[in-house]
């Protein structure tokens, strides 16, 4: 596994394949979980949606791997960075995917799993309710009133979207909300998503990205100076890490 260096202020780690990149991310989850629990008595972790995190979820849940036993599950609060507007048992539900691969397999108390209500017929109301739930669970330790998640896991779409912040959509510009309902014309659908102020307040953000189809977006975000949604995630008081497989990193100059 190599480390091309800090591009765009980010630390970039490259593994040969998705399994290796997921392992890098799993090591970070353990280290940041242990540090957060020791320092603040709680580990606030936001999970990514989509397909890529499945490898990470499987690793974290596997009793034969070194991660599961080292994560302070009893003191972990689980959030979701985005959700599709579907019921929690729907095949497209990010919550369902995370529950099946991870949450049902680890000793995290049910009351500490905070899911976005994708089934709510009023997505704006679901977003407001989730922001209230997040604030109630985490409070805000600092003067700006924005809760700080200890670790936010994110993915990347080939169009440069992250969470459900798609190019050209309204939620990208939201500065007065931490969670938004976002209409995505390309999908003809609503999504629920964290906004940039909440992402940028995180103590750490890790993008886990794999596959050659993501390589142009990875290069554009990390080297191209592009104004893509993922390039706008800048945790100024936190750390930014990209865990890539070789295919996703193949468009990087170094
Ligand atoms: O729509 C989404 O896409 C991105 C990337 O998903 P992937 O399946 O290509 O890994 C994901 O990060 C986001 O959470 C998800 O809802």
Automatic annotation (TrEMBL):
EC class of this enzyme?
hydrolase
Q: Which GO terms describe its molecular function?
A: 6-phosphogluconolactonase activity
Q: Which domain of life is it from?
A: Bacteria
Biological-process GO terms, alphabetical: carbohydrate metabolic process; pentose-phosphate shunt
Q: One Pfam family of this protein, by short name?
A: Glucosamine_iso
Membrane-crossing residues? none
Its UniProt pathway annotation is:
Carbohydrate degradation; pentose phosphate pathway; D-ribulose 5-phosphate from D-glucose 6-phosphate (oxidative stage): step 2/3
Q: EC number(s) per UniProt?
A: 3.1.1.31
Q: Which keywords does this chain's UniProt record carry?
A: Hydrolase
The segment(s) forming the Glucosamine/galactosamine-6-phosphate isomerase domain are 20-242
Give the reactions, separated by semicolons, that this protein catalyses. Answer: 6-phospho-D-glucono-1,5-lactone + H2O = 6-phospho-D-gluconate + H(+)
Similarity section? Belongs to the glucosamine/galactosamine-6-phosphate isomerase family. 6-phosphogluconolactonase subfamily.
Described purpose of this protein according to its UniProt entry: Hydrolysis of 6-phosphogluconolactone to 6-phosphogluconate.
Which PANTHER family does the annotation name?
A: 6-PHOSPHOGLUCONOLACTONASE
Stated name of the protein = 6-phosphogluconolactonase
Which organism does this record belong to? Anaeromyxobacter diazotrophicus
Query: What's the name of its gene?
Result: pgl
């Amino acid at each position: 596994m190599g480390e091309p260096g800090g591009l765009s202020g980010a630390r970039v780690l490259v593994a040969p394949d998705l399994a290796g990149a997921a392992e890098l991310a799993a090591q970070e989850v353990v280290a940041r979980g242990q540090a957060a629990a020791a320092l603040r008595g709680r580990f606030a972790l936001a999970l990514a949606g989509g397909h890529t995190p499945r490898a990470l979820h499987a690793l974290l849940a596997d009793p034969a791997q070194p991660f599961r036993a080292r994560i302070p599950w009893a003191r972990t609060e689980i959030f979701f960075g985005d959700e599709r507007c579907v019921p929690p048992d729907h095949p497209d539900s990010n919550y369902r995917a995370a529950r099946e691969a991870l949450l049902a397999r680890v000793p995290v108390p049910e009351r500490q799993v905070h899911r976005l209500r994708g089934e709510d017929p009023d997505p704006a109301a679901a977003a407001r309710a989730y922001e209230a739930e997040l604030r109630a669970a985490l409070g805000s330790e600092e003067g700006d009133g924005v809760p700080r998640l200890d670790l936010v896991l994110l993915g990347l779409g080939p169009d440069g979207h992250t969470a459900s912040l798609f190019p050209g959509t309204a939620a990208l510009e939201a500065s007065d909300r931490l969670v938004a309902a976002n209409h995505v014309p390309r999908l003809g659908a609503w999504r629920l998503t964290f906004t940039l102020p909440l992402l940028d307040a995180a103590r750490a953000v890790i993008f886990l990205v794999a596959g050659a189809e993501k390589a142009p977006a990875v290069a554009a975000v990390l080297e191209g100076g592009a104004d893509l949604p993922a390039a706008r995630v800048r945790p100024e008081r936190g750390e930014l890490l990209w865990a890539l497989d070789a295919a996703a990193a193949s468009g990087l100059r170094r």
